[in-house]
Design brief:
- This protein is an all-alpha fold.
- Among the domains are: about 1-65, no CATH class; about 110-260, no CATH class; about 345-390, no CATH class.
- The chain has helices at about 1-20, 45, 65-95, 110-120, 125-135, 135-145, 155, 160-185, 200-220, 230-235, 240-250, 270-280, 305-370, 375-390; strands spanning about 25, 35.
- A two-stranded antiparallel sheet has the order 1-2.
- Helix 4 packs parallel to helix 11 (about 240-250), helix 5 (about 125-135) packs across helix 6 (about 135-145) and helix 8 crosses helix 9.
């Protein structure tokens, strides 16, 4: 009997232990003591991981969860990895300057753009440019096949006809804005510095000059919205401006519209520059080529004596005088000939008149003599006239 009761007691304790284990409780060190162990809970009881891992029929005090700690550690690692990768990508992409006007989506390398622009707008791209005007979609596909098939550039060879079209369209738009910018500056509105120099200081000076002129162009109402000084500097340094200008237009440095900016404010730098030109002694010539900012007024060119022009003018005037003298002599001779001809004609007419009179008078005298109604005196005069003719 005692064995049966002991067996029943053990079975009851076993069942109770299994129930507590289902709730995550394990026996403690002391009698009738249970300690919560989250590792005994099933995935169903763990819930969504937001501290709701207790079963619905048991809600003990909140204790640290091993699974939650592991998840938090992994989440922190993933966030750190993403942040580190973002920093790496940012550092990598910083080496590739993104064109602020041409950028759309992933950036193109300058070498890709140069290859693209040279193939379409270069000196040897006449046939390509003419085809582009008639059938642009065909030329964009041809660009992909010829320029970027099998190469590692141009978006890692993921360039499509649509991306090439976007690059060409935005490049033409950027060129139009640079043309509008040069109409304001007179065809060379850069800052101090040499565009061909590789120095950072020189580039910064050039960009600073472009920025100041861009502000003036915007204030004057020129269509330069979206254009930046870095883009202008990039187009000049990489030769894109000359490439587009040779194909699409004529250099404004030769033929440009000079805008009148007499009402615009003069900066302190320009005033200091003028005062230094007047008072300060001339500085020694610099070995580096310096490009000065375009002035707001058009200065009068320095004239030199044109000795060759004066010599040619004197020779031309002398030849003209000699020609006029010869013409006057010929006119006098022509007048004398006309006058002589008129005299001869007059004499000839007079002689003809006399001859006609001589022929007409005898006939008239004969008619008078034959007239019955003529008086005796008239007939006598006619008779005497005829007698005189015969006697002569």
């Amino acid at each position: 009997m005692s064995n049966q009761s002991g067996h029943a007691t053990d079975s009851c304790l076993c069942n109770t232990k299994m129930k507590f284990n289902m709730m995550g409780l394990v026996p403690g060190l002391r009698a009738n003591e249970f300690v919560f162990d989250p590792m005994l809970l099933s995935e169903r009881d763990l819930g969504d991981g937001d501290n709701n891992f207790f079963p619905s029929h048991f809600a003990p005090t909140k204790t640290p969860n091993k699974r939650e700690s592991v998840k938090k550690i992994k989440g922190c690692k993933r966030r750190n990895n993403k942040e580190n990768q973002h920093e790496i990508d940012k550092a990598t992409n910083s080496a590739v300057e993104v064109d602020e006007v041409l950028a759309a989506g992933r950036p193109w390398l300058d070498a890709d753009k140069t290859k693209l622009f040279t193939w379409l707008f270069g000196a040897e791209g006449d046939a390509n440019f003419e085809t582009h005007k008639k059938d642009p979609a065909r030329i964009y596909k041809k660009m992909i096949l010829i320029l970027y098939t099998g190469c590692k550039s141009a978006l890692n060879n993921n360039a499509t006809a649509a991306t090439v079209k976007g690059q060409i369209t935005r490049a033409i738009k950027a060129y139009d804005m640079i043309i509008a910018f040069e109409k304001f500056t007179g065809g060379g509105g850069g800052g101090d510095g040499d565009l061909n120099s590789d120095g950072d200081d020189s580039d910064n000076n050039v960009i600073a000059g472009f920025e100041s002129h861009l502000k003036g162009a915007c204030s004057a109402g020129h269509a330069v919205g979206g254009l930046t000084a870095k883009v202008i500097n990039q187009w000049y340094k990489l030769g894109w401006y000359d490439l587009f200008n040779d194909r699409l237009g004529k250099s404004l440095k030769i033929t440009h519209e000079v805008a009148c900016h007499s009402a615009s404010a003069v900066s302190l730098d320009e005033i200091k520059g003028l005062s230094s030109d007047i008072e300060a002694p001339s500085a020694p010539p610099s070995s580096k080529k310096v490009k000065l900012p375009a002035s707001h007024t058009v200065t009068e060119p320095k004239h030199k004596a044109a000795t060759k022009f004066h010599t040619d003018t004197a020779a031309s005037l002398s030849s003209l005088g000699e020609f006029l003298k010869q013409k006057a002599v010929m006119d006098d001779k022509r007048f004398m000939l006309v006058q002589e001809k008129a005299t001869r004609n007059h004499k000839r007419d007079e002689q003809k008149r006399v001859q006609d009179e001589r022929q007409d008078c005898p006939e008239m005298a004969k008619v008078v003599l034959s007239m019955d109604g003529a008086s005796d005196e008239t007939k006598a005069a006619a008779n005497n006239y005829l007698l005189n003719l015969f006697t002569i």
